[in-house]
Write a structure and sequence with these properties.
By secondary structure, the chain is an alpha/beta fold. Helices cover 31% and strands 21% of the residues.
């Protein structure tokens, strides 16, 4: 083991541009020691995060790691502590995005959960503290990787992941699209772009979308897409706490955060998961100077929650 040397130590770091806007990023390489984190690996990630905070630019992590490199012992664990500290220091200062591109286990799952947004790839990316074999040896329960930490589990049940995509290419394309909604740091205003959707256009569908019967359900997404620029709405956590909708759109070219009750699910009542989902999104928008547009139709809190 001590004779094996790999340039870069299993992680590629650097900076570039997405649609002309600067970004810092790191990408773990599973072909080098399973993407496991060593002391040098951790120092590289910490350095790129420090630079991102210094410049005031978002940081993106492409995660594909088996966890700590056990051959390095406690030094590897100390590396995770350093990364977690950067996650905390960068919170509310620069946007942090994690893209899970493969199976991540052990210490490799904590940092993505601390970032602002976590995206996954269906059927190929996993997040779990310990794998199915360990679970079986301890509890005797047979569980698959997908059931334990797949994209469906984390987007619909735990709420750890904010979106899941069909494949790696689709994930990276949608990540670039999502990046355009975000400011570079908490010192910048919400980004603007040229808008070809006239603000004075009439929206005739609003006359009929809300039913006359107060007990009838309707889809709030129809209203949101009708109002925002070019019907372009990037929903966050669409499968988790469906009774509330959060996401990003544009009004007259400027990014806005959307918070809306969804009468289509649980009549739009607020429960614990919906409240946490909405509150976390509002905190992010508040930290990064993003205006919030609210669509409200809520009977109240769900009884018993």
């Amino acid at each position: 083991m001590e004779k094996e040397k790999y340039a870069g130590d299993g992680v590629v770091t650097g900076h570039g541009r997405i649609h002309g806007r600067p970004v810092y990023l790191f990408s773990q390489d599973f072909t080098v020691f399973g993407g496991s984190l060593s002391s040098a690996h951790a120092r590289k990630i910490c350095k790129v995060m420090d630079q991102a905070m210094l410049v005031g630019v978002p940081v993106i992590g492409l995660n594909d790691s088996g966890g700590a490199r056990i051959q390095e012992g406690v030094e590897s664990l100390a590396g995770y502590a350093d990364i977690f500290q950067r996650n905390v220091l960068a919170s509310g200062v620069i946007p942090q995005i994690s893209m899970i591109m493969g199976p991540c286990a052990g210490g490799a799952v904590y940092s993505p959960a601390l970032t602002d947004y976590t995206f996954m790839v269906r059927d190929t990316s996993y997040l779990f503290i310990t794998g199915p074999d360990v679970v079986k040896s301890v509890t005797g329960e047979d569980v698959t990787q997908e059931e334990l930490g797949g994209a469906k589990t984390h987007t619909a049940v735990s709420g750890v992941a904010h979106h899941a995509f069909d494949n790696d290419v689709d994930a990276l394309v949608r990540l670039r699209e999502f990046y355009n909604f975000l400011p570079l740091s908490n010192r910048d205003a919400a980004p603007r772009r040229q808008c070809d959707d006239p603000p004075e256009r009439p929206v005739y569908s609003l006359d009929t979308v809300v039913p006359l019967e107060s007990t009838a359900a309707y889809d709030m997404l129809d209203i949101i897409r009708a109002v925002v620029d070019e019907r372009d709405f990037f929903e966050i956590q669409p499968l988790y706490a469906k009774n509330i909708i959060v996401g990003f759109a544009r009004m007259n070219g400027r990014t806005v955060g959307i918070v809306a009750n969804q009468p289509k699910f649980a009549a739009g009542c607020l429960d614990i998961n919906a409240s946490v989902k909405g509150a976390r999104f509002v905190r992010f928008c508040d930290a990064f100077n993003i205006p919030i547009l609210t669509f409200e139709d809520v009977p109240g809190f769900l009884p018993g929650w």
